[in-house]
Amino acid sequence: MTITIPGLGELLPVAHTPEGVACWNSTAAGPSVSVLVEEPATTADLDLPFIASVVRDRERLLAAAREAVADFLRDRPGYGPDAVSDPEFTFHPGRDWLVRFAECTVPGLTELGVVVVFHDGDVVAVDDLADVELDDD
User: Fold this and answer.
1) CA of 89: how far to CAs of 27, 29, 52, 78, in Å?
2) Cβ contacts of residue 132 below 8 Å, gap of 6+?
3) Which tens digit of pLDDT belongs to each residue from 61-93?
4) Which helix or strand (DSSP H or E) is residue 26 part of?
5) How much is the pTM?
6) Percent of the chain beyond pLDDT 90?
7) How far apart are CA 79 and CA 37, in angstroms?
8) Would you say 98 and 125 are in contact if contact means Cβ atoms under 8 Å apart?
9) Upstream peptide bond of 40 is cis (omega within 30 degrees of 0)
10) Residue 26 has pLDDT above 60, yes or no
11) By CB count within 10 A, which of 67, 83, 107, 124 is most buried?
12) CB neighbours of 19 closer than 8 A, spacing ≥ 6?
């Protein structure tokens, strides 16, 4: 099954996901866009028009995410304007969504990068994911 986001097109299912999680992805229009649904939620719980509105406004929202990361990392050694790259947009049911910068050159941060959490169009949190434990499986 695919998901169609107006203005973006079809998102294809990701083959290998944890049990109880479904994921779709597209890289057709710039940064990667992923949609995750975890049980008990279903695809009927997704707000596709909302996701489409974020995708249409992605340049402004990506700039807001970069600004939030700059504020968060500014005092860390090794931070510079190009410290984060490879943004990925991730959505799930509801109005909370995120931008994860998969690449971060600031020393001491993990390979998970930095995530900016939004509610609607507002930044509500920034996390360096340093306290997330990686599964070696």
Assistant:
1) 10, 12, 12, 25
2) 110, 112
3) 999 999 999 999 988 888 887 889 999 999 999
4) strand 21-26
5) 0.88
6) 58
7) 34
8) no
9) yes
10) yes
11) 83
12) none
